[in-house]
Amino acid sequence: MIMIRGIKMENNIDWGKLREPLPEYKWKINNSNRPKTSVFCVPYFDARDLEDRLDNVLTPTGWQDDYKQVKNTMFCGIGIKIEDGWLWKWGAGVEVENYNNDDNIKLKGEASDALKLAGVKWGIFRDVYRMSGVWLNAENINNKAIPVDKHGKKIKDLTDYINNKMNAENQNKDEYSEEPDSKKPKYTSPEDLQLMIDDAHAQIDLALEKEKISEETGRIFHGDAKSAVSKDDINLIIKKLDLVDYYLRLRPHLTSKLKETYKNQILEVTIKEAKSLTKEFDRISRDMGLK
Fold this sequence. Notes:
Helix content: 40-55%
Largest sheet: 4 strands, antiparallel
Number of strands: 10
Strand order of the largest sheet: 4-5-9-10
Radius of gyration: 22 Å
Order of helices and strands: EEEHEEHEEEHEEHHHHHH
Number of helices: 9
Strand content: 15-25%
Distance between the termini: 22 Å
Shape: globular
C-alpha cells in the first residue's frame, strides 16, 4: 500500500478519483404539493454514470458485477480486483413501482437500482444522497404539476435549469444577491421563502412517516416552519432534523441520561450550537468505532 496526496492506494487504485462527485448531477421531480403549484426535485445519477466511473478508474477488467434475488429482493454486488483477489460489496434494489405490468422492465429497474446502491457502498456518488432537494414553482395542468420558471414559462430541461440556477447562486449572481464584496445579508424573496417553508414541512412529514420524530415534536417543528420569517429560521429546522437522524444512529449506544440530554438539546438548539453538537456527535461516533 502506498500514499498519494494523503489518499490510500491499493493495487494502484485511486480511491479519491473513484469517489469524486460528478461535475453536475441530473435532476428529476420527486414530489409535489397537493395543489400541484410546487414540485420537489432531487439529484440523481444513472447506472451508465456508475459504469463509466468504474471503467475509467479501474479499467473494464478491474471490476465486475453479480446479481441474485433473496426473498424477492434484487441484490447486486460490485467486485473490485485487489491484488490477486476480489473484494465485494452488495446493494439491494428498490422495487420499481411504474413498470406497466412488464416483468422485464421491473427486473431491469430493480437491477439498475441495486447496481447504483452497490456503487454507493464503495463511496461512488455517495454525495448525491447528502444533497438537498430543490423546490420549484409549478403550474397545475390537468392535475399534473409542470415546473415553470420565475416568469411562469414551462421549464423544458429540468437538469439544465437547476444546474444553471445553482451555479449562478454559487457565483453570487442570483437575482436576489448583493454584490460579492457586500457584507449585507442575502435577500430571500417571499416566493423563495415560501418554497423553503414548503420544503421544511415536507421533510417534517417524512420524518413523522418514518417515525423518526414524535407527533408532539412534529407539531413543534411544523409550528416553527409556519412562523418562519427568514432563511435562517428554515435552516435551523433542517439542522434539527439532521441532528435527529444522527441522534437516532447513536441512541442505541448511549446511556439513558445522555439520550435524554441530547434529545432536549436538539429541540432547543440554535444555529451556532448545532455545529458544536454535530462535532460532539462525530466525536462520540469515532470513539465508539461507528465511523
